[in-house]
Amino acid sequence: MNTSDLTLFVQIAQSGSITASAKQTGITTAAASSALKRLEQELGVQLFIRSTRQLRITLAGEKFLFHCQQALASLELGLVSANESMGCIAGNLRLSVSSDFGRNILMPWIDEMLGLYPALAIDLTVSDVLSNFFEDKVDLALRYGKPQDSNLIAFHIATLKRITCASPDYLATYGEPKYPEELRKHTCLLYRTNGRLFDLWEYQNAMSNLKVKVSGNRVCNDTDIVKRWAIAGHGIAYRSEIDVFSDVQNGRLIPVLTSYQAPPVELYLVCPNRQQVTPTVIAFRELLREKIKVLLRLDE
Asked: Which superfamily does CATH assign the domain made up of 162-256 to?
């Protein structure tokens, strides 16, 4: 069974489009259709139901997808292991990360990786703006949310909770909101990127789903500054758990509205194309997954 066909099958299942997956892989749509038919013939099952308007995975396809993803992940780790023994985790890895994550979380992990692989060099760009891989000459970007561009390779790293929090001083002075609607009476610390202001905070509980439009007198395009404002007592922040976990543990920030849940945020490691998924990239991906799992005890 051809691993290229398996990889293409996973891409088609994720994108829902043979054409988009073909473009991502660098082959024609006809070649992608032929590869999919070849795989179905080898398996003896239909993986997708096709129509002129829709491509839908079958029950057999869903079952096979799970095992296929596991097998490909195992092969990737085997590639890392084999290349480690030959000293192939090397070269210059150009990485773009968000400001808060890069400054406050990633630094010691980079130190560890460089210690493990002396022939590796990391060129780090810290910015909350999603990099243009070609203009900015970036190999990898660590970002929240799956990219809309189906041509990019996106590795899921973790599903993270969102936490609404404020400093003890702020809560002592202005009180603690008990319901999401009360946020309208509070000073909220806002984040802006690419012209978009994140001022619509979402919550849900067993009774309702709520979207609250908040406001405040401080807006920044740097997530680290937003968090520092919260610690300094200037307002309430709405952040990923990984961005504030140490501050919550140390009591610098106090979670509020804990009887409500906010939609989780997905963390992805993004690569411009399949050809740039090297053993070094895979090794970095696995390090991130393991470190975040341990940090937040996601396996408990």
From this structure: Periplasmic binding protein-like II (3.40.190.10)
Q: What is the pLDDT of residues 184-239, one digit of tens each?
A: 999 999 999 878 899 999 999 888 889 999 999 999 998 899 999 999 999 999 99
In which residue are the tokens 């473009």 written?
Answer: 23
- The two domains 3-81 and 162-256 share their CATH topology (first three levels equal): no
Q: CATH topology for 3-81?
A: Arc Repressor Mutant, subunit A (1.10.10)
Contacts of 76 (CB under 8 A, 6+ apart): 282
Average pLDDT of the chain is: 87
| Burial label, 112 (beta-carbon count in 10 A; 0-12, 13-18, 19+) | exposed
Structural domain spans, the chain: 3-81, 88-158+265-296, 162-256
The predicted structure's pLDDT at residue 70: 83
The sheet with strand 265-271 has its strands ordered as 120-126, 91-97, 140-144, 265-271, 153-160
pLDDT for the residue 182:
97
Query: 146 or 52: which carries more pLDDT confidence?
Result: 146
* 88-158+265-296 CATH fold: D-Maltodextrin-Binding Protein; domain 2 (3.40.190)
Predicted local confidence at residue 298, as pLDDT: 52
Structure confidence by residue, pLDDT tens digits, 107-131: 999 999 999 889 899 999 888 766 5
